[in-house]
Amino acid sequence: MSLNKALIILFCYLSLLLVVTIINLNRSKSTPSITHEYVYDEALMVNILYVPEIIRSYEKVKLEYGKKNILFFRYISNSCNICSDSQLNELFTFQEEIGKEHVWIFPAYPDDRNSRIRLSAELSGYNYRNIPADSLIIPIYGGEQKSYFAWINSEGEIELVFVPNRSNVYHTRQFFIEVKRIIQMLEENS
Question: Fewer beta carbons within 10 Å, N or C terminal of the chain?
C-alpha cells in the first residue's frame, strides 16, 4: 500500500475517533468522558500509528480466524514474559466483567507439541487460537514487537486497537472501559 493510502486511512481513523469523542461528550455533559481521556492521551497517539498495518493484516485472516463482538489480545512467544503475564492478568479480570465469549487470545507460537502444551496450560481460562506470526501482524516499535488488543465489531471489522504500555496499566483499563461500554450498548440494542 502506498504512503498516500496509509495516510488517508490514518486520517479517516483519526476523524472517526474525533466524531466518537464529540458524540460522547454531547451525550453526557455532567460526567467526564472516559473516551475523551483515552483518545487525547499522548500514549494512544503513538499507538494509532499501528492501526492501518494491523487492519490490513487482520483483513487477510478474518475469514479463517474472525469472530464478531470480541476483544482479542495478540502477542508473540518471544514477548517479554512479565509484560504478557501482566496483560493477561488484566484481561482475565476484565473477562470476568464482560464474559468469556467476548474475549479471545491470539498468541503467535511455533506449531509444535511443546508450544501446544504450554498454551493449553497458560491459557486454560481463555478462548484462544494460536495464529502464526506471519499471518496476523505484531507491529514493531522501538526495535521490539508489541502486543496489542483489538475490538472486532458486529460486522467482523476491527473497530478499536490498543497497544498497551507495561508501565501504565491505567491506559489499558481505560481501553477496557471503552470496550465494556460498547458491549453494554450491544446488549441494550439486542
Answer: C
42: Cα separation from own chain's centroid:
17
Angstrom CA distances, 100 to 32, 139, 152, stand at 29, 26, 15
* pLDDT at residue 143, as a whole number: 78
Q: Taking the model in full, what pTM does it have?
A: 0.72
Under a CB-based contact definition with an 8 Å cutoff, are residues 74 and 61 in contact? no
Report, at the CATH architecture level, how domain 51-189 is classified.
3-Layer(aba) Sandwich (3.40)
User: Domain residues of the chain, as ranges?
Assistant: 51-189
Q: Which residues contact 34 (CB under 8 A, 6 or more apart)?
A: 174, 177, 178, 181
Contact 38, 178 (CB under 8 A): yes
